[in-house]
Amino acid sequence: MSLNEQQKQLIEHSIERVAEVAGDPSPHVYARLFAQAPEMEPLFILDTDGNARGHMLMEALDCIFDFLGPRTYSTTLIQSELINHEGFGVPPRIFTTFFNVVMETFRELLGAEWTAETDAAWDALLTDLDAVVAEQAKKFGVAAV
Q1: Consecutive 10-residue runs of the chain (145 residues): their mean pLDDT?
Q2: What per-residue confidence (pLDDT) applies to 145?
Q3: How far apart are CA 136 and CA 18, in angstroms?
Q4: Is 100 helix (H, G, I), strand (E, B) or coil?
Q5: Distances (CA, A) of 87 to 12, 73, 96
Q6: Which contacts qualify for 112-121: CB closer than 8 Å, 24 or more apart?
Q7: Residue 33 in 3-state DSSP?
Q8: pLDDT value at residue 90
Q9: What Rg value do the Cα atoms of the chain yield, rounded?
């Protein structure tokens, strides 16, 4: 599925609004991630100040912005991070979970500002990202545990 320009703008706007409304959304995103995938929390034991979490969220958002635009590196980033994270025991499904958690958290933070159109745009994006994650995991032999 390919996103149209209006969907891309809705996603970009929602990300920008979250920054305006919540500042750094990392604590919210990771609280939700750890609730949905508690096996991930121990991997952050050394991240006592949250900097690694913030950096990872920024990388994911940069990936999304590139995916919405020129797609010059988002697929390669997903590929390399799948391989990097495999060494930590992070299966590809967690990438899908993470992108979904970002959307769910942003929807919660924006409340009434989140429209049905925004939801549909994110749904289309997540479908496309999930396909890329699955394709790259298969292509490079990353275990889908």
Answers
A1: 92 98 97 97 96 97 97 96 93 96 98 98 97 93 70
A2: 46
A3: 29
A4: helix
A5: 32, 22, 18
A6: 113/17, 113/21, 114/14, 115/10, 117/6, 117/7, 117/10, 118/10, 118/11, 118/13, 118/14, 120/7, 121/3, 121/6, 121/7, 121/8, 121/10, 121/11
A7: helix
A8: 94
A9: 15
110 Cβ contact partners less than 8 Å away, ≥ 6 residues apart? 14, 17, 18, 21, 118
Structure tokens given for 70 = 């020129």
Q: Please compute, for residue 102, the number of CA atoms within 13 A of its CA located in the half-sphere on the CB side.
A: 26
Residue with tokens 């409340």: 111
Instruction: Report which residue type is found at 55.
Output: H
Q: What is the pLDDT of residue 48?
A: 96
